[in-house]
Structures are given as structure tokens and as C-alpha cells.
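Researcher: Please predict.
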Amino acid sequence: MNLFKKALLIAGAVVALSANAQAATYKFAVNIADNGSTAEALHDFADGVEERTDGRVKIKFFWNGVLGSQDSYLQQIQKGVVDLGLVNSATLENLIPTFGAINLPYVFRTADEYGKVMDDPAVKEVLFTSAAEHRFAPLGYLSSGFRSLYVTKPVEDISGLAGLKIRTMSSATYIEMLRRFGAVPTPLARSELFAGMQQGVVDGAEGGLAGLYDGKLGEVAKWALKTDQTRLTDFTVTSLQFREKLEPEDLTIVEEEFARVSADTLAVADKHQNEAAEMAAKEYGVTIVDIDTAPLMEAVEPMYEEARKDEGKRQLLDTIFEIEGRN
């Protein structure tokens, strides 16, 4: 073998070793099950990143809250122990109060309004301006559709919610919303919801109706109330260390792939919610109730007045209403 061929082989080996050294697998914490439209979007994102980076960036998901609750793994992301995580706007509101504006009931009346607001540069700037101060970085959002109510007892209108114990997240906005609906807000871990309804700890929950089928909650919650009160947003956030570890071109790929799947979820989220609810009706005998939402909207009007007392929320609400063409 001549010296030129040897040099080529050595150079090739060095390049291969260098590529292998740069390849890494990053931890992505999730508190939902590995099914449904959000899970599909996350898999699509991870596959796209791995393919476009030629395997340099691989993502391993930890589903069903294996790494703890959202609050818990967000702290690990802030420390750089976990690389990425799915964290909803209710959890982020506890850390950055301005997020409470997008959690207000009926702030989004249609999917089109939601998409316009969430993709607006001014809204993104307001929401993420202080993220770095809290030692995490936003990657983007996934739309999971409107949230409604499902219960274990028959309910036909707002009066039927009086005194019902409704599971919710530990969010001041969601707790106040349910209180104004006349229900008894009951914070409970998502993993405990099925048993909680079975045992009467709670009488139902607020959430996407797709959970009645995807999470088999329709086995115990037999009434689905289409209230469409909020559109909880699932944000993917990363540790600051994760961004520092990646080569600039790989970070660009990660951002581009997430932007791609984000746009796709906006198109399919509501379709999936409706189809899954229909499957729950067919398979589990769930009754879908088209409840009159006007009394619910009226009940939560004071929440807007209260939100406007916070300067950050007031500015964001003004921006949202301008985009939506509301007074």
C-alpha cells in the first residue's frame, strides 16, 4: 500500500472517529403517553432531526412522567440535567405570570385566532423575553386543540357543574376558571386521574376530549361537555446547555424541524380531538353534550379585569385582541 492510500485511510478514520465523538443522545421529558397527535408530532420531530444531522443528534423520549411532573423536570432542564421537555402554558405561568394571559378562558375563540396569535412575532417576544433569566430556552409550541370538560355524572348546562370536583392543573388561572364555573377545582396529577374518577376523588376533569379515547378515560367519564374554554399550549423548552452543546448547523436543523411539526399540529389538532371523542362515544358509550357556552363566557369575564391589573398580562392581552380584531 503506497503512502497516499495510507494517508487517505488514516484521514477517513479520523473523520469517522470525529463524527462518532460528536454524536449524542439527548433526553426529552414528557408527561403524556406515547400515543395521540402530540406524541406523533414529537416522533416526527426527532426522526427529522436524526435524519438531517446524519445521526449526530438523537433524541430519547421519557414518556408518562417517568422523569417526574412538568414542574419537576422543568427544574432539571434549568439545571441542564434534562435536555428538552414538554411544558404547558399552565406550568410556565407559575414561573412567568405573563403566560397567564394565553391561559384565560375563551381568549381564543377559534383555531384560526389561536394560530395567528401564537405565530405573531410580537407575542413570541413577550412570552419568551424572560425565559433565559429562568435558565431555559423555548424551541416552539405544539397545538393540542381546545380543552373541554368530561364528567362521571350527567350534566346538561352550567348549573350541573355546581359542586362537582373537577380535576385541573396547579394553575391559578385554571383553578379560578373552574371556581367561576361553579365547580370545585381539584388539582391532581394526570397519572392519578383515572383512579381518581373511579374512586370518586374527583367527578371529572378539564382537558382535551381526545383523552377519553387515547387515555381510555371514557371508561369512567361518560359525559363529554364541549365547552372549548381554553387552548392549553404545549411548549417544548430546552436547557441552555443543550443549545451550547450543538454545532450551529445542527441547532438550526433542530429549530427548523420543530417549526415544521408545529405548523402541522395546528392543522390536525382539532381534527384529532373530534375524531377521538367520537371513538370514545362509539367504544365506551360516552355521551357528547353540546353545552351552551354563553353562561360560561359571562361567568369568567371578571378574570379579564383581574388579569389587566398585571402590566405584563395587560400588554399581551392588548396585543392578542388587536390581532383577533376584538375590542
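Model: The chain has one domain: 3-324.
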